[in-house]
Amino acid sequence: MLGQSDPAVSNGKKAKRRWAELAPSWLALGMNFPTLICFVLILAYPIFFAGYLSFHDVGVRELRSGEYSFSGFANYITLFSDPVFWKSLKNTVLFVIISVSLEVVIGLAVALVINEHRIKLSKLTKFLILVPWAVPPIVNGFLWAFIFNTQFGYLNRLLYQMGFIEEQVIWLGNPSTAFMAIVIAYVWRTVPFNILLYHAALQGIPDQLYEAAELDRATAWEKFRYITLPLLRPIIAVTLILRTTFAFMIFDEIFAITQGGPGNDTWVAAWYTYKTSFNPPFDIGVGAASAYVLALIVGVVAIAYVRYVYTKVEY
Amino acid sequence: MANVSVEKLKKNYGTMEVIHGIDIDIQDGEFVALVGPSGCGKSTLLRMIAGLEDVTAGTVSIDGEVINDIAPRDRDIAMVFQSYALYPHMTVAQNMGFALKLAKTAPDEIDTRIRVAAATLNLTDYLERFPRELSGGQRQRVAMGRAIVRSPKVFLFDEPLSNLDAKLRVRMRTEIKSLHQRLGATSIYVTHDQIEAMTMADRIVVMRGGYIEQIGSPLELYDAPNNEFVATFIGSPSINLLEGRIEKDAFRLTDGSTLPLPDGLDDLDTRAAKYGIRPEHFEIVETGGVATVKIDVVEPTGNETILSGTIGGQEVQITQRERLNLKPGQEVSVTLRLDAIHLFDANTGQRI
After folding, report:
1. Which residues does chain B have within 8 Å of residue A233's beta carbon, measured at their own beta carbons?
2. pTM of the shown model
3. Are the beta carbons of B213 and B24 closer than 8 angstroms?
4. Which of A12, A294, B72, B176 has its CA 20 to 30 A from that of A30?
């Protein structure tokens, strides 16, 4: 025993020394173990398992027997030859472009207004601006489903009373209005995130830069164009990466508001994965393949953003 | 180039008045320093001239035209900020050319003017660098370059040297002064450092608590301060102020000993006062001195010797050009340069 070989060292000191020796490797690993377990079980395992499933035949029968036969790229071939998949993908890309653009533009506009010294906003107003971000996505979806409801919805009632419409509009029955309904509901929920980040970044820009620009004879627009926008570039890149990633995965609002309808006009990639996997004929292999294609697209877009948009600004 | 004048200028923040109606006339091509302790209103005054602060009452005018309601961008003024306020995402050249670009100046013209300014300021090798890649002194020069490429009517400087180390500050002081001599542009320079004000300015405006204490050339302020505040603020080491009373033909210190009064000030009413004498106006003599100084500390600086001691129990500082072999505790006899003595009223602080 160690204690016998060195009797002068007390037990307390020994214990301390052991901890110290553990510190760099095992202690760190031990402390992180619970998180690692959660990460492996909740994220890593499903990710790899989905990858495994995408190369196997997985239907109701296989699920029952528990035996999945290897099918190579068959699921991917099925996927790419399905016009509904392409339609879903097209809708997703369209949705991402419109919603992310709106998030950036509206987020920036509201953040600039909040940041403006001359405009006084109460703490309550600032808090209320952030509330939609705290609403769970599915709840937000149902809220907007009520608003767009043809018979009982607030929107029809409001427009009717203000004299803008003569009769009730079936917002969710028309492909383009149904699509925009999804966009509006989604952006409503997510834009506070951008406002928050842009506002924080705006507060980090020293006032003296604007004073210097003012004396350099810059107009309000030129100050925005040449000072604010370049200095916000890094944070705009961050929000583009994050918001694009999340927008590609749009699901809750589709589920709550249109269920992909009318017909399959508002099908998006995540909805395609869900419908293929968990509705008859329960083609989980194809669903997993579609999820992987989506992940690949998101990854490529994120890398492109980091390479071409993200630049660091140092004061 | 232009003359600048402020008349009965006031500034309130809420209900608090921080500048209490001041008047200054600055001539075309003049270099004027606004000097005073923190919070005296000198930066606020400068920012009001720039248009970055609203005027509460009174007027600011350039070339006789009142500009209170003219936006800063239309005043044709350039300002060098304490923090330099360089645009961090632009190179040195872009920083310097920004105003010209906004004014839609032709690109070749912008380029020429940047190169001329850069050559003047020794920045030619740094034109493609970003501010973060420059030292403090270089950034300071870029800030100046940004001002001079525009050839504005008026230059404003807001403590431009206070972020530099002591050595660089002395060098930039000289550079700014020689730049002003070459360009001849009207300049207003804010500083809390009286040495900067003394060495650079044609005229100094000493401010305290939102009031002007005195306006004058550096040597006027040094030789004839209006009051105790100006006397102590200007000069380093500071003027000695000895407390006591003016009596019929002498100044009686609080311990009962006396100091001589200069001609013209020797027939005043008896009253409490302060006896002001600058450190260099003492002369150490073998015999025939008018007062005795007990030496506490001797500080040789090479070019002069600073002695700290007491006269009649009150602290004084004396500077002597000679290298003196004195020891702490020693007593020396001194004479005073009577024509350089100022008496200040003990209650009002005004010069008698």
Report:
1. 89
2. 0.79
3. no
4. A12
